[in-house]
Amino acid sequence: MAEPEVEAASCAEFKQVGEAQFRDLTEEPKRQKKFRWWGDEGQARRLRDEQTYHYVRWTFVAAVAAVIVSLIVFGLTFLH
After folding, report:
1. Phi first, then psi: what are they for 23, rounded to 5°?
2. Full-prediction pTM beyond 0.85?
3. What backbone torsions phi and psi does residue 28 show, to the nearest 5 degrees?
4. Cβ neighbours, 10 Å, residue 72
5. In Å, how far are 4, 6, 11, 35, 58 from 25, measured between CA atoms?
6. Which DSSP category does 19 fall into?
7. Are 10 and 18 in contact (CB under 8 A)?
């Protein structure tokens, strides 16, 4: 198998079995793949967290803007 296929198979194995069972690996190639996989998973998790933070922040800003616009419109109805 080519290297990307082997690495994809290892990643699938890590996901299926879980992190706990791979903590005591003694085979060096598998250990290196495990560390790469954990790094990739951590990077993906950080990216997801960052995107979620930005989404929540902009949703909050939109909600506050909607409240402000509503208060202005409500106030203008009393002026007429």
Report:
1. -70, -30
2. no
3. -60, -45
4. 10
5. 21, 17, 14, 11, 44
6. S
7. no
Q: Model confidence over 15-61: pLDDT tens digits?
A: 666 656 666 666 677 667 777 777 777 888 899 999 999 999 999 99
Q: Domain residue spans in the chain?
A: 3-79
List CB contacts of 1: < 8 A, sequence separation 6 or more: 9
Q: What is the structure's pLDDT at 1?
A: 44
How many Å apart are CA 49 and CA 55, to the nearest integer? 10
Return the H-helix or E-strand segment holding 16: helix 3-17
**Helical pair 28-79 and 3-17, crossing angle rounded to 10 deg:** 70
Residue where the block lists tokens 């079995």: 17
CA distance 19 to 35: 11
